[in-house]
Amino acid sequence: MKLSYSRFDYYEKVYNQTVETFVQCHEHAFKYFNGVPKYVKIDNLKAAVLEANFYETNYQVLYKKFADYYGFSPLPCRVREPQEKGKVESGIKYVKRNFFAGRTFKDGDDLDKQLKNWLQKTCNVRVHGTTRKIPIEVYKQEEAQKLLPLPEKSFAIPNVGQRKVYHDCHVYFEYNYYSVPFDYVGKMVDIEATENLVKILYNTRQIAIHGRSKDRGEFITNKSHYPPYKNHLSTEYQESYQAKMKEIGTNAEQMFFYIVQTHPCEWNRTVMGILNLKKEYSAEVIDKSCRRALCYGISNYSRIKNICKSGAYNQPSEFNAEVYHAFN
User: Fold this and answer.
1) pLDDT tens for each residue of 238-271
2) HSE of 195 in the Cβ direction (CA atoms, 13 Å)?
């Protein structure tokens, strides 16, 4: 990072380009400068910019929150316009040629120590080739007081990452599964996790939030995230099957209510089985079989099918009025 006016430089060695690393590099630079510039010109790397658009930039969520926290405005360079970041590009050439060229390092820590020493004793105290001034002197005399003050506390980086939404409307995060609205199945979403919450975002917009589980292998599910045909408790879903049973007959509709009461979590399978009997039997036979089943408090698909098959629906039976009228 280079302060544009004074050419006061900060360099740091890192091993990846994740958003967390990019944010930490900014923080280290701001501390080195003892202040925050009002504007930070950035290249269009994915750690900061999700979609490059000159008129309306789509920023990476964490990076934008970080920028808001420190009070600076990020200014992405235009795509394929290298002259817009010329000062930084020339600085990269300088650090490669003046610092790295010809040096050896024992390890990463040794490199860091040598780089810090080079910044203080060479880079920022030489006469700059363009301004013909010494960067640290210009910084102290003219630029330092123009910077925004550092916040009292550093930015708290939440645990973040990207995940693909599985076909069952869940994402996997730290050994647990968190639900996401079914519209996002197959898409990549961003995860932000604090100590107690897990937030799920798509294109910077929050689409789900859950309490963070401390266990493993747990499914944290908001049933409204399922499509209607998978949400067995959905009123709309139940009403559609009630209507189908009603088409068979009054007794079949009463059987629907009885099944929902006796099998609240798996009622849909039993009802679908009864509806499937229409491939072999008439609606009249199925309706009469449901009536006989209600008489004896039966709500199992297999037994209702046996009634249809055996013709027992024609046998006289004493109707259980209590069961029948319980759903009227």
Assistant:
1) 888 999 999 999 999 999 999 988 887 778 889 9
2) 1
Paired tokens of 151 = 């916040």
Count CB atoms within 10 A of the CB of residue 165. Answer: 26
The string of pLDDT tens digits covering residues 167-194 is 889 999 888 999 999 999 999 998 888 7
> Would you list the domain boundaries of the chain?
19-146, 162-225, 235-325
- Dihedral, CA atoms, 219, 225, 227, 233, nearest 10 degrees? 70
| Three-class DSSP category at 92 | helix
Tokens 């079914």, residue located: 182
Class of domain 19-146: alpha beta
Burial of 311 (0-12, 13-18, 19+ CB in 10 A): exposed
Residue type, 304: I
Assess contact for 222 and 209: CB atoms under 8 A.
no
Rounded Cα gap, residues 99 and 37, in angstroms: 26
Give the single-character DSSP code of 143: I
Q: Which residues contact 35 (CB under 8 A, 6 or more apart)?
A: 144, 147, 148, 149, 150
3-state secondary structure of 111: helix
From CA 301, how far away is CA 272, in angstroms rounded?
Answer: 9
Instruction: Give me the helices (H) in 216-249, please.
Output: 235-248
Question: 22 φ, ψ to 5°?
Answer: -60, -40
